[in-house]
Design a protein that fits this description.
single chain; 304 residues; alpha/beta; D-Maltodextrin-Binding Protein, domain 2; 3 domains; seven-stranded mixed beta sheet; two-stranded antiparallel sheet; WH_DNA-bd_sf; transcription regulation; DNA-binding; LysR_subst-bd
């Protein structure tokens, strides 16, 4: 049996809603329903009463839920112990980081950790948020660097995983300047006759979701024409520099471009979006882990 089916069922039992549980597990509702059905077929009985609202577990489902929680907890704990034994060095860590963080804050973070602890071996995986979360929750990495927005939930169970704030980031709308006036070539808010060309994050990306919310806000009425999309900031930045439209980009990644005049604001601070930068971690009692968390908190205090 696939371990993911147990995790799916525990999530469903806790949220008591197929739609919410599917969203938490990062799958479509139809796919999630099929997975729960597959688990019931493996067990040999119905675990969920689908005829009541809110959803309820059958007596068999309640028993299975209690045991599934125990099994998962034991497996997670065992995995952590085995991984700790398998470490080639007490100075080795594995980190998953969203692409933009890997290109900006991450290097400074590593330098500060080494300043406080000494040289370490770091294995960095830089991917989309969904992929980073999966690596972390499955125990393939020790730490997860990610952005967080106050209005958008992350696909992580905060009751299972702790985090510390490392810093802040701001998304700002930028364009190449008009060569003659140094004003933005593409500027918000646009107008119905001439919508502003917009290179965007995918709708599934955290940045994409936050921008979609902003554009639906009545206080941020604008007229944009979505032309290209990609989940990675550095790709959108290249598109902006090629004069394909404007984009919201992390401020820390474009400081030099703004200073040197290659980019300029496409809208004032009214259009900015604020994010926290979180470091999720597993519960491990080691000197290196203590230094990592202490260093991360110190960075947040400096950036506050």
């Amino acid at each position: 049996m696939d371990l993911k089916l147990l995790e799916d069922f525990v999530c469903l039992a806790q949220l008591q809603n197929f739609t919410a549980a599917a969203r938490e597990r990062l799958v479509t509702q139809s796919a999630f329903s099929r997975r729960i059905k597959a688990l019931e077929e493996w067990v040999g009985t119905d675990l969920v009463n689908r005829d009541c609202t809110p959803l309820a577990l059958t007596p068999q489902g309640k028993l299975f839920y209690r045991e599934a929680e125990v099994i998962l907890r034991k497996l997670y704990n065992c995995r952590e112990e085995v991984r700790a034994l398998g470490k080639t060095s007490e100075r080795e860590i594995a980190v998953a980081a969203q692409n933009s963080i890997a290109q900006t804050l991450f290097l400074d973070w590593v330098k500060r950790v080494e300043r406080n602890f000494g040289s370490i071996y770091v294995r960095l995986v830089s991917e989309k948020l969904i992929d980073c979360v999966e690596l972390f929750t499955q125990g393939h990495v020790d730490y997860l660097f990610c952005y967080a927005h106050k209005n958008i939930g992350l696909p992580l169970d905060d009751s299972r995983f702790e985090y510390t704030l490392v810093g802040r980031e701001k998304l700002i709308p930028v364009s190449v300047p008009n060569g003659q006036t140094q004003e933005p070539l593409f500027a918000l808010p646009g107008n119905p006759a001439e919508p502003v060309p917009f290179v965007a994050y995918t709708h599934e990306a955290l940045f994409g979701k936050s921008i979609d919310q902003l554009l639906q806000d009545k206080d941020h009425r604008c007229y944009v024409q979505r032309r290209y999309e990609n989940p990675f900031s550095h790709t959108l930045k290249s598109m902006v520099l090629e004069k394909l439209g404007f984009a919201w980009l992390p401020y820390s990644s474009i400081l030099t471009d703004l200073r040197d005049g290659r980019l300029c604001r496409a809208g004032d601070e009214h259009w900015d979006l604020d994010f926290d930068i979180r470091l999720y971690h597993h519960s491990r009692d080691s000197e290196l882990n203590r230094i990592v968390l202490q260093t991360s908190r110190e960075m947040d205090q400096r950036n506050a």
